[in-house]
Every structure is written in structure tokens, then in C-alpha cells.
Amino acid sequence: MQFAFTEDQLAINLAAREMLVETCTPASLRLMLKDGRAIDEARWRTICEMGLLGMLVPEAAGGMGLGLTDFIGIAEAAGYVGLPEPLVELAGVTIPLLARLKDNRGLLESALGGNRVALGHPANRFVANADSATALLLGDGEDIHLVERVDATLERQESFDPFRRLFTVQWAPSPATLVAKSWGDSAERGALLAAAQMIGLAQRCIDISVAYAKDRTQFGKPIGSYQAVKHLLANAQVKVEFARPVVHAAAAELPLGTLAARARIAHAKIAAGAAAELAARTAVQVHGAMGMTWEVDVHFFLKRALALGSSWGTAGLHLDTIFERIGTVPTGPDATFASELG
Amino acid sequence: MNLTYTPEQRAFRAEVRAWMEANVPPAPLPSFDLTSEGFEAHRDWERRLNDGRWGMVTWPEELGGRGLDYIRWLIFEEEYYRAGAPTRVNQNGIFLLGPTMMEYGTPEQKARFLPRMAAGDDIWAQAWSEPGAGSDLAGVRATCTRDGDHYMLNGQKIWSSRATFADWAFGLFREPGSERHKGMSLVLFPLDASGVTRRPIQRMDGKLVFAEIFLDNVRVPAADRLGEEGQGWAVCMATAGFERGLLLRSPARYQVGVSRLIALYQVHKHRLPASMGERVAQCWMDAEAYALAIYAMVSKLDRGGKIGPESSTTKIFWSELDIAITSAAMDILGQDAELTGEENDWLDDYVFALAGPIYAGSNEIQRNIIAERMLGLPKA
Ligand SMILES: Cc1cc2nc3c(=O)[nH]c(=O)nc-3n(C[C@H](O)[C@H](O)[C@H](O)COP(=O)(O)OP(=O)(O)OC[C@H]3O[C@@H](n4cnc5c(N)ncnc54)[C@H](O)[C@@H]3O)c2cc1C
Questions:
Q1: Which one of A242, A319, A338 has the shortest CB-CB distance to B290?
Q2: Which of A89, A186, B184, B253 is within CB 3.0–4.6 Å of B232 for a Cys-Cys bond?
Q3: Which of B362, B364, B366, B370 is the pocket-test mutation for ligand 1 (most atoms within 8 Å of CB)?
Q4: C-alpha to C-alpha distance for A239 and A228, rounded to whole angstroms
């Protein structure tokens, strides 16, 4: 029993986080919007060169052979910076899925090299970044089809989050496009990694609000010296502190695949969603009218939190898994860890 | 990161479980907050625990413990609560003063006090608060006046839990004339010493959960001061860290509470609205989140880390969780909730939970600490 990251894990996380924080500043996001770009190709190349896309792919298949506990901190960091590029979905869900296919039609190597594959999982209504993908993995019930970009008709759906380029996709499933009969643990991975990003987003909302509250003065004092403002931010931080360990535990337990493990992921998604929602609302409140504006950066993180909150299953849907868990699997102080529950 | 127990940890759990099954009294002991018989029954239980060497498993063997790490302490606590063992009457000794003495005590103090504490021979009360010094503890006025190698203690303490029947107290005093955080000392004194008067205070339900302590020229050896003279504030803050952060309220307590809540919910489910199920599920999630956060904290401690101001988030979380659990139970019980009969064992828990956001530093004070020391916001 060791509920802490190893030195290696901390080192990988730190390297990725530093790169993301340095390159993905709010100023750079605004520049991208001005140019109409949802992907920064230079950063994408860096992500690729750092090997982040292949972290969860077995070494024999050209990856690093690492696990979700190695990657979870990077997903948090991607949330923290409001990363526009689909690093988390690709490295965490799509590429591991490609690696499991009997025949990935050369797409695994291509994706590890930086070509993007879009994902149309049945948990989600829309396919993100389909326009800049070389191919799409699309669901037809539990069946998975691999569809070339040219064989799909895309219709753009405008998201409140300007960096989420969403599409509905029209395509014709055929025996030739069928590549697998099951999504495996993709839905769990998606929910877990959305949760991790929401932890990062929540912390970012708190951090920018703290900075603002130190700077902005009213009644002759920084607003951050007023207790009402302090307590808003403290409450948001408490929510984060008791959602983060759930997310980290979920990363460690996901591979077990049991109901107890799935309930941990559901809990992670619910708790991180609640933390991000509270932190984003708190950020607006602490910024006053500025918090409502385009000019202040809060909205980047609020919008992403809103989008991720309903991606990969809403809180209500995940609550059903919690009910199933507490109704059928033992609860209590000796039933904390999924590894003890079979 | 590895969320599986080692075979040794599993064997340890089995050992604790077997001992608890063989030793935990089948019926609950009489309350330690009503009569000295109830108090002494709990002392006997402490002695029995100590005979099994379970008094305080993290302490070194020579001081009455087993020298175990905190992960094993958590496993011990899990089995303790799972077995429904009696509430620790010496909790302010073993969980607050004990760890502080480990850090600040002289070898003589440790040898003299800790084994007796682990054995339940001395039951301890915390005597910090005063009528004029609650949240603002630096406003303490009770004095310790140096008289050669002794102190004379004078003043009034209040809200001292279990002091009505306890044996010793650890009190916060100041040198006459000193102000605020300076000149304070933490001094140990026997509650039956000459010059000490105890007046029990009734809780809203009549229980004598705490007491006032009046000190009138109480003479104690200066050797019974814990930590340096004048450094009492720093010593107290170390204690407060344990109190808020880790030891006082182990997660197992709430996990057992939630399991009881789920069972209660199952019984009454047919007549309850769906929203009640959501509250129960939220309680379960929060109790799990608390357990995981403490496992993370303990993993850090076992690797030599320290608990910082994040202990304030812990205190807010467990106290609010306790209220969420017990108030959900009260709502499920409906009109039976107000009945005081024996069969309503939730009422006492509910009343107790109401105090959680007040003691161990009120939650408002914890929020100030989070804002100022974790987030770096300016002082008012
Ligand atoms: C069940 C129970 C057991 C206890 N056991 C012990 C014990 O064993 N030993 C001991 O020494 N003490 C004990 N206490 C006392 C406890 O530590 C104090 O009650 C606590 O520190 C609060 O002090 P107070 O009651 O004087 O409230 P006050 O300090 O008067 O506070 C009243 C209200 O004002 C708020 N408030 C005060 N200051 C601020 C501020 N700066 N900002 C925002 N809000 C503020 C508080 O949060 C609270 O809501 C116990 C209390 C209870 C309820």
C-alpha cells in the first residue's frame, strides 16, 4: 500500500507540466483564436517528440509501456492550462484502443507519429477535432469502425468552448470498416481522464482568482483580505483536495475492471465535476463583473469545465454506478480499495 | 503508487480482527459522559487494549506501542471501528498530547507519561480554551508564575472534554505580563491537585461532555512543562496539526457511519423520495474520499513528509461529512428522529456532529488558514 506517486512519475509529470504551462498561456490561446486555429502544430510536435502520445502503449508496439497512474498527472496539467490539442483523448483513450486492435491498419504508428485520429465513442454525442484527423474510430453500438476522413461527412456543431471543434458524423458502417466488437475500457478511461482534467481546471480557476484577489482593491484593501472572499476560495480548494485523491485512486484501480473499480471512476467523475463547477463559478464571483467578460481568462477554464462535465457520462449517469456499487458490493472501512473486493 | 495491501498488512488486519472479535464487549459500555462508572468502564477497556498491546500501535515498543507505521495504524483503526469497539476515552491523550510529547517531550517525560497514557492509567483532558479565549487562543489569560523549580497556575479554563472524570490535563498558560503568542507555556497538571476545582458543563442533552477548570495557586513542578518555556504556542500548533489533520478522526469512523446509514436507508427506502438515495450516495462517496485523502497523507508521512496547512481542509471535510451522515439519518427516521429512547442511536451522533465545525478550531478559522497559508491571500 503506497498511495503516492513514485519519483519517476513525478519527474515525467513535471517535465510535461512545465512544457504545457510555458507554451499554453492564456495569451497564446487568444492568439490562436485570432488566427482561427484550434491546434498549435508546434506544440503538437513537442508533445509527440516527448513521447507523450505513446505513454500508455506497450513497448513492443512502439510506446513507453506505462500505466494510467503515470499519465494522470499529465491529464491534470492539460486541464490546468486549458490545452486545446487532444493530447489527453489521444494518448489516454484513442491510441491505447488502436494498440489493442488486431489490425489497426497502420494507424497506430501513424498516430504515434502525430497524425490525429478522432474518436466517436457512444458515450459522447459529438466527435471532437474530426476535421483535422486522418481517420476516425466510430461506434455503431458496441462495434468499432475505422473510417477514413474522406469517407465521413462532417457537420460542425458550434461549442461554447472555442477550442472544442465538434462534429456530427455521417458514415456508412460496412464489414470492411469494422475493426473490433468491443470498446473495452474506453468509456472508463474517457471518464477518468475527463475527471483529471477537471481537477486541473478547478485548481486553475482557484489560482487565477487568488492572483486577482491579491491585486484588486476595493474599500482601500485587496479584496482577497476580506473573509467572505477568502471563504469562497477556501471552499473551492476543499472540494479539490477531496476530489483529487479519488481521481488518483481511480487511475490505479481502473485496470481491475470490477464494479468497485468502475464506481471509483464514477465517483472521480462526479467529484471532479463538482469541484470544477464550484471553482469556475467561484472564479466568476471573485472577479466581479470582470469575471463575466471575454477579456478576463476565467471563461477559457469555465467553458472547458462545462464541456467536460457532460462528456463521458453526466454526473447523473455515473451516480447510477454508485448506487449499483453500494447496493451490491460490501461497504465499510475494510472495503475502501477495489483490490480487496474482487 | 500501489493500492494493494502487502501480505504482511493483510496478516496484520487479520490479527487485529481476531483480537477485536475476542475482546470487544458485546454490549455498548455505559456513556463516559454521565457517570464515573461509565468512565471507569472505558478506562478498563483501555487497560484491556493495552494488555493486548493495542493502546497506541504507532508508538515505540518501550513506550507501550508496537512501533508500526501509519498505514498499519489506519488498518488498526479500520478494524477497531468495524468491530464496534468503545470510543477512546483517552483520545485527547493518545491522539493529541501523545504525538506532541513524542516531538517535544524530554526522555524522562516520555518514559513517565506515555506508557501510562497508552495503558489508560492516566486519562487526559485538554485545557486550552478560556471564556475569553476560544477561536482566539492567543488571548489566553491563565498564568504560570515561576516559583523556583515550580509554577503556580492560576486562572480559568473551559470546555475541557471529559475533564469531569479525567486524571490529568495539559494546559496552556502564560507568564504574567506577557501578551499574545509570546510567553506561553504548555504545562501538565493533575486534575486532583490542590487548588483545582472542576465544574461539569451540561451539553444540550444533559451529558457532562466538558467541564470548567478553576486554578487557584496550583503548584506544579517546572519539569512538567512540555517544550521550552515561552514556546507554548509552537507546541500547541503542533498538537493542533495532529488534531485537525490526521489522528483525531480516522476515516473508518465515517465509513462505519455510512454503512449504518445505507442499512437504515434500505429499511425505509420504500417510503422515501429518490432524492434521499442521492444524499446517501453522496455520504458514501465523501467517506471514501476522506479515506483516500488520509491514505495519501499517511503515505506521505511514512516517507518522511510533514502535514502542512492542508490539515485544515481535512478538518472541514470530516466535520461536514459527519453532519451530512447524521442529518441524512435523522431525515430518514422522519418523526422518530426526535425521540430520545435507546432505539434512536442516531440522535446522540447528530448532536455530537453539530459540535464538529466548532471544536479543534472552528471551520471558519480553518477557512482563514486555508486562504492565508495554502492560497497565500493577505491577512485582514
Ligand atoms: C464538544 C466540544 C468539545 C471541546 N473540547 C475542548 C477541549 O477538550 N479543550 C479545549 O481547550 N477546548 C475544547 N473545546 C472548545 C473549542 O476549542 C472552542 O469552542 C473553539 O475554539 C471555539 O471557541 P468559542 O467556543 O469560544 O467560539 P468563538 O471563538 O466565540 O466563536 C463563535 C463563532 O464565531 C466565529 N468566529 C470567531 N472568530 C472568527 C474569525 N476570526 N473569523 C470568522 N469567524 C470567527 C466562530 O467560527 C464561531 O462560529 C470544545 C468545544 C466543543 C464544542
A1: A242
A2: B184
A3: B362
A4: 17
The pLDDT assigned to B325 comes to: 98
Cβ–ligand 1 contact at B164 (below 6 Å) = no
DSSP state of B369: H
Of these residues, B46, B78, B212, B243, which one is catalytic? B243
Cell numbers that stand for B342 in this block: 435507546
A221: chain B residues, CB-CB within 8 Å: 378
Largest CA distance in chain B: 72
Q: Please, which residues bridge with residue B99 across strands?
A: none
Q: A257 CA to chain B: closest CA distance, Å?
A: 14
Domain boundaries, chain A: 7-180, 186-341
CATH dotted code for A7-180: 1.10.540.10
Q: How far apart are CA B27 and CA B345, in angstroms?
A: 14
- Of B233, B142, B125, whose CA–CA distance to B188 is shortest? B125
Q: Is B210 in the pocket of ligand 1 (CB under 6 A)?
A: yes
Contacts of B251 in chain A (CB under 8 A): 333, 336
- The ipTM is 0.97
What sign results for the dihedral spanned by CA atoms A17, A19, A24, A27? positive
pLDDT of residue B76: 97
- Which residue among A1, A235, A242 places its CB closest to the CB of B71? A1
**Confidence at B245, pLDDT banded by 50, 70, 90:** low
Tell me the three cell numbers of residue A329.
458490493
Whether the Cβ atoms of residue B104 and residue B226 lie closer than 8 Å to each other: yes
Distance CA B337, CA B332 (A): 8
Among all chains, which residue has been given the C-alpha cell 500548533? B237
What percent of chain A stands above pLDDT 70?
100
User: How far is residue A69's CA from residue B3's CA, in Å, rounded to a whole number?
Assistant: 11
- B211 C-alpha vs ligand 1 centroid, how far in Å? 14
Is residue B106 very low, low, confident or very high in pLDDT (cuts 50, 70, 90)?
Answer: very high
**C-alpha cell read off for A75:** 491529464
Would strands B196-201 and A221-222 be described as parallel, antiparallel, or unpaired? unpaired
Q: Is the CB of B314 under 6 A from ligand 1?
A: no
| Ligand 1 pocket mutation, candidates B159, B201, B377, criterion most atoms within 8 A of CB | B159
Domains of chain B: 7-89 (no CATH), 124-230 (2.40.110.10), 249-374 (1.20.140.10)
The answer, yes or no, to whether residue B241 has pLDDT greater than 80, is no
Q: What is the pLDDT of residue B248?
A: 78
Closest-CA residue, ligand 1 atom 32, reads B135
Residue A8 buriedness (CB in 10 A; 0-12 / 13-18 / 19+): exposed
Residue of A nearest to B380 (CA): A225
User: Could you tell me the CATH superfamily of domain A186-341?
Assistant: Butyryl-CoA Dehydrogenase, subunit A, domain 3 (1.20.140.10)
Residue written as grid cell 469502425: A145
